[in-house]
């Protein structure tokens, strides 16, 4: 399944459970939910089989939990003035617990208990930055919460409570607002960030040190960031400069660069295969098969247009 959203949430079926895609057929639309406002971030509630959308720009910002099977939407409103900038979702199948973390413009990280068989609600707010919180990521084991701010700083804190610990940053002249945070799915201690000036940083979050940095990796803001689910050393970034760039974080070098037709707003790697989905500023979603990465041209297998 692939979900994409702007003014509406669209859920499509991609051919092949292993992440393969057919060249002759476009993805089939499974469900569509209109949104009152603009989607700023998406997540998957794997326990309740719902798509989670952070929505901004309506009467009040909110989280929407969309159930395609039931064709229903559960909403969690955010306080007035708290714009939803980003979200991260974590599910613990053994304990049957689900959590959403929302980075908000008032500087708060709001934790939402979205566990099955209960009404989703905000259960805790953390103020860790003093300025707008612009990015958030829950670690793969659910023990840590990483957040980034408009000042360019990234901090870690225990998920179930505790003070923030700052990660090493850039020189003040290079600092810019954090746009995205992403944990590696294969190495739980590895965390990456991107910012408004096109810089990328990668940390060992356990050792609290940089693994590598790529200053000026893109010309402008970088909102798309994803680790490979097949190669622990592969990081992929997509920017407003319409460039998709592949990085070897072990050896601190660029591997490949692919130009597309418009700025990139988001990236998502298929958890069980080799597909990469790229959201675009023009409303399109491009789907790439990365097994063709070493070919002269890595072209999109399919394109989905949404509004």
TrEMBL record:
**What is the protein's species of origin?**
Effrenium voratum
Name-wise, this protein is Uncharacterized protein
InterPro entries for this protein: NEDD1_Spindle_Assembly, WD40/YVTN_repeat-like_dom_sf, WD40_repeat_CS, WD40_repeat_dom_sf, WD40_rpt
Q: At the top level of its lineage, which domain of life is listed?
A: Eukaryota
Keyword vocabulary terms for this entry? Repeat, WD repeat
Any coiled-coil regions, as ranges? none
Q: List the molecular function annotations (GO) for this entry.
A: gamma-tubulin binding
Biological process (GO) annotations held by this record are: microtubule nucleation; mitotic cell cycle
The record's GO CC annotations read: centriole; centrosome; ciliary basal body; cytoplasm; spindle pole
Give me the WD repeat coordinates as residue ranges: 215-257
Q: Does the record's keyword annotation contain NAD? A: no
């Amino acid at each position: 399944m692939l979900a994409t959203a702007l003014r509406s949430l669209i859920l499509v079926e991609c051919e092949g459970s292993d992440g393969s895609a057919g060249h002759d057929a476009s993805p089939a639309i499974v469900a569509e939910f209109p949104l009152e406002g603009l989607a700023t971030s998406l997540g998957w509630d794997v326990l309740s089989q719902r798509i989670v959308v952070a929505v901004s720009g309506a009467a009040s910002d909110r989280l929407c939990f969309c159930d395609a099977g039931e064709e229903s939407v559960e909403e969690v409103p955010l306080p007035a003035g708290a714009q939803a900038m980003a979200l991260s979702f974590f599910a613990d199948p053994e304990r049957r617990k689900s959590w959403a973390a929302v980075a908000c413009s008032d500087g708060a990280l709001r934790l939402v208990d979205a566990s099955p068989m209960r009404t989703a609600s905000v259960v805790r707010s953390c103020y860790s930055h003093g300025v707008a919180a612009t990015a958030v990521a829950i670690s793969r084991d659910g023990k840590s919460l990483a957040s980034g701010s408009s000042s360019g700083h990234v901090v870690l804190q225990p998920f179930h409570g505790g003070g923030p610990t700052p990660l090493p940053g850039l020189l003040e002249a290079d600092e810019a607002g954090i746009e995205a945070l992403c944990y590696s799915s294969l190495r739980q201690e590895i965390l990456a960030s991107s910012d408004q000036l096109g810089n990328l940083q990668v940390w060992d979050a356990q050792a609290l040190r940089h693994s590598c940095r790529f200053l000026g990796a893109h010309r402008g803001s970088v909102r798309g960031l994803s680790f490979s689910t097949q190669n622990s050393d592969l990081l992929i970034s997509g920017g407003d400069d319409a460039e998709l760039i592949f990085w070897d974080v072990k050896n601190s070098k660029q591997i490949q660069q692919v130009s597309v037709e418009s700025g990139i707003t988001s990236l998502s790697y298929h958890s069980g295969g080799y597909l990469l989905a790229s959201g675009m500023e023009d409303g399109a979603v491009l789907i790439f098969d990365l097994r063709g990465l070493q070919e002269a041209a890595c072209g999109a297998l399919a394109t989905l247009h949404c509004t």
